[in-house]
């Protein structure tokens, strides 16, 4: 049994688009136990499942856009079930569905519909946060409202530890808050602070690498500001089963796959 370290394939998306199967093979060779998809790159879901089995990778979960899920809940969930996924995760909200926007109430109703379909097909539905859910509505974070309105029988958490910290909260404490409801945790590291370039994910020029003050840059796990030993310990106590590396853009002069390897080696050394 491995240490249940997975990677969000979006982290190496250009590699996956160019050579999907070769990329999965490389992920396994680095040492990862599982993968979380963000699309299947045009591949047949049953072939994806077979390939994961062949390489000894667990096709753990998939990030699937809310609009795809709500447009065809049954068919979309069935697709990822065929790929072997145990969990489907809503990864991001477009502006009209965010807390305080005109369709936030529609989102809450829609997540319930999707959650019911996932439950019917034997798949867990999760929600992956950014920082925009950490706005307060009547004194309560919107993310907490989502998890309160939609119970654990229909929706589990997938705490993204980077965005929790960017929002000004302690990632370990926030993971602990949802003990028993956090089967997977996203491990994401960064330097700098909340800034306009966060979602553009613009890196820092190599010549400026020492000057990171105020500049937001995603980093391989263990190369930024996060206290991962505390996060992992709290998550394990709360029943977390998988830890998922995610780095949306490479940095430090490394390729995406090199970043993935640095992240794995660090986690392997502390777990």
Give the structure's gist in a few sentences:
The chain is of the alpha/beta class.
Describe the protein in words.
By secondary structure, the protein is an alpha/beta fold. The protein has a single domain (5-190, 221-270), classed as TIM Barrel, CATH 3.20.20.150. Helix content is 40%, strand content 17%. It contains eleven helices and twelve strands. It has helices spanning 13-18, 20-30, 45-55, 66-71, 73-82, 104-121, 142-149, 161-166, 171-177, 228-237, 256-270; strands spanning 5-8, 34-37, 58-63, 87-90, 124-128, 136-137, 140-141, 156-160, 184-187, 189-191, 217-219, 242-245. The strands form three sheets. The chain has an eight-stranded parallel barrel with strand order 1-2-3-4-5-8-9-12, surrounded by seven helices. Strands 6-7 form a two-stranded antiparallel sheet.
What is the fold's blueprint, element by element?
Layout: E1 5-8, H1 13-18, H2 20-30, E2 34-37, H3 45-55, E3 58-63, H4 66-71, H5 73-82, E4 87-90, H6 104-121, E5 124-128, E6 136-137, E7 140-141, H7 142-149, E8 156-160, H8 161-166, H9 171-177, E9 184-187, E10 189-191, E11 217-219, H10 228-237, E12 242-245, H11 256-270
| Spatial shape | globular
> Can you tell me the CATH superfamily?
Divalent-metal-dependent TIM barrel enzymes
The total number of structural domains is 1
**For the largest beta sheet, what order do the strands appear in spatially?**
1-2-3-4-5-8-9-12
CATH class: Alpha Beta
**First CA to last CA: what distance?**
13 Å
Structural class: alpha/beta
Largest sheet: number of strands, sense, barrel closure? 8 strands, parallel, barrel
Q: Overall mean pLDDT score?
A: 93
Question: Helix and strand succession?
Answer: EHHEHEHHEHEEEHEHHEEEHEH
């Amino acid at each position: 049994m491995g240490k249940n370290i997975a990677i969000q394939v979006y982290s190496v998306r250009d590699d996956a688009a160019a050579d999907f199967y070769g990329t999965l093979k490389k992920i396994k060779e680095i040492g990862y136990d599982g993968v979380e998809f963000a699309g299947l790159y045009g591949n047949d879901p049953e072939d994806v499942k077979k390939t994961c089995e062949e390489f000894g990778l667990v096709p753990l979960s998939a990030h699937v856009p809310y609009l795809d899920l709500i447009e065809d809940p049954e068919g979309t969930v069935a697709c990822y079930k065929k790929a072997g996924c145990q969990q489907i995760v809503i990864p991001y909200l477009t502006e009209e569905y965010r807390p305080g926007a005109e369709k936030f109430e529609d989102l809450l109703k829609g997540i319930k519909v999707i959650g019911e379909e996932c439950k019917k097909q034997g798949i867990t539905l999760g929600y992956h946060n950014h920082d925009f859910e950490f706005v307060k509505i009547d004194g309560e974070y919107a993310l907490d409202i989502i998890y309160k309105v939609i119970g654990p029988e229909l929706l589990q958490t997938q705490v993204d530890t980077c965005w929790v910290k960017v929002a000004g909260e302690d990632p370990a404490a926030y993971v602990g808050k949802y003990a028993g409801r956090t089967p997977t945790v996203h491990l994401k590291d960064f330097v700098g602070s909340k800034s306009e370039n966060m979602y553009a994910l613009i890196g820092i020029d190599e010549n400026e690498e020492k000057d990171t003050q105020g500049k937001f840059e995603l980093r391989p796990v263990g190369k930024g500001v996060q206290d991962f030993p505390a996060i992992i310990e709290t998550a394990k106590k709360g029943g977390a089963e998988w830890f998922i590396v995610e780095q949306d853009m490479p940095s430090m002069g490394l390729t995406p796959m090199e970043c993935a390897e640095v992240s794995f080696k660090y986690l392997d050394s502390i777990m």
